[in-house]
Design goal:
The protein is about 20% helix and about 30% strand. It has about 210 residues and is of the alpha/beta class. The chain has a single domain (about 5-214), classed as UDP N-Acetylglucosamine Acyltransferase, domain 1, CATH 2.160.10.10. The strands form 3 sheets. The chain has an 8-stranded mixed β-sheet with strand order 2-5-8-11-14-17-19-20. Strands 1-4-7-10-13-16 form a 6-stranded parallel β-sheet, with no helix packed on it. The longest helix is centred in the first third of the chain and has 24 residues, at about 5-25. The relative contact order is 0.09. Bound molecules: coenzyme A. Coenzyme A binds near residues 102, 103, 135, 153 and 169.
């Protein structure tokens, strides 16, 4: 038996249990929580009309993650919210399945303050399935982002974004369309939840070639 590997696996299992227990505590005020939520660190999650799907993962490390407000907030399955992100709803925020918000992303459905005597803007925000929002991007009130979009780091998204594109900049503009292999659900991949089908196919072709030359 490889004892070193076994030790690492046991350590990881303990860490995962700790993260599950933390999730139970952090999400105790959440109306509905799916299976296997994981929370790393100490986020503040006190949104009062919040429902989250299965495999919800929240990290709160170098900066605190905040999920708050009295608006309707619906978050799908397999969503990852990274450290320092702020998601505040006073009206309606919908985050689809398989969405990742990177570090310090800001999502809000209200401007909080009016300008020039006009009332402040409140408008629903929607982020489509499989979308990856890069670090420090800001998603402004009223914006609908399509499916499998990549929002580049630091973008300020002021307008709706169609499916399957990369947007970048301030204000965010479409840089190019994105092409995915059939069956690909997410713009973002990781080895654990969703390995990129293209990379998996490439790797298995390499493995086959290696086996044939050996
Ligand atoms: C978008 C990103 C993934 C790069 O994707 P890519 O397909 O390799 O894009 P490219 O580097 O080819 O850039 C395409 C164009 O978009 C521009 N661009 C890319 N990222 C940009 C950004 N963050 N802001 C502004 N413009 C950006 C490039 O300058 C380039 O413009 P050009 O065609 O005029 O030269 C990367 O820039 C990014 O933002 N990553 C996010 C990383 C992150 O947040 N990680 C957190 C992990 S949880």
């Amino acid at each position: 038996m490889d004892w070193e590997r076994r030790r690492i696996e046991v350590q990881w299992t303990v860490a995962e249990y700790r993260q599950r227990a933390r999730a139970k505590w952090s999400l105790r005020r959440t109306s509905e929580v799916g299976r296997k939520a994981i929370v790393l660190g100490r986020p503040t999650i006190d949104a009062t009309d919040l429902e989250v799907g299965d495999d919800f993962k929240v990290w709160s490390g170098h900066r605190k993650t905040l999920i708050s407000g009295w608006g309707r907030m619906r978050i799908g399955d397999r969503v990852f919210i990274n450290c320092g992100s702020v998601v505040i709803s006073v009206l309606e925020i919908t985050i689809g399945d398989d969405v990742a918000l990177a570090n310090e992303v800001y999502v809000m459905d209200s401007n909080s303050h009016g300008v020039e005597g006009r009332p402040h803007v409140e408008a629903p925000v929607r982020i489509g399935d499989g979308t990856w929002v890069g670090a420090r991007a800001l998603i402004l009130p009223g914006v609908t982002i399509g499916k499998r979009v990549v929002v580049a780091a630091g973008s300020v998204v002021t307008r709706d974004v169609p499916d399957d594109v990369l947007v970048a900049g301030n204000p965010a503009r479409v840089v190019r369309p994105l092409e995915y292999p059939p069956g690909c659900k997410r713009a973002w991949h990781d080895e654990w939840g969703c390995p990129c089908p293209k990379l998996v196919a490439m790797q298995s072709a390499l493995d086959t070639a290696g086996a044939q030359t050996a």
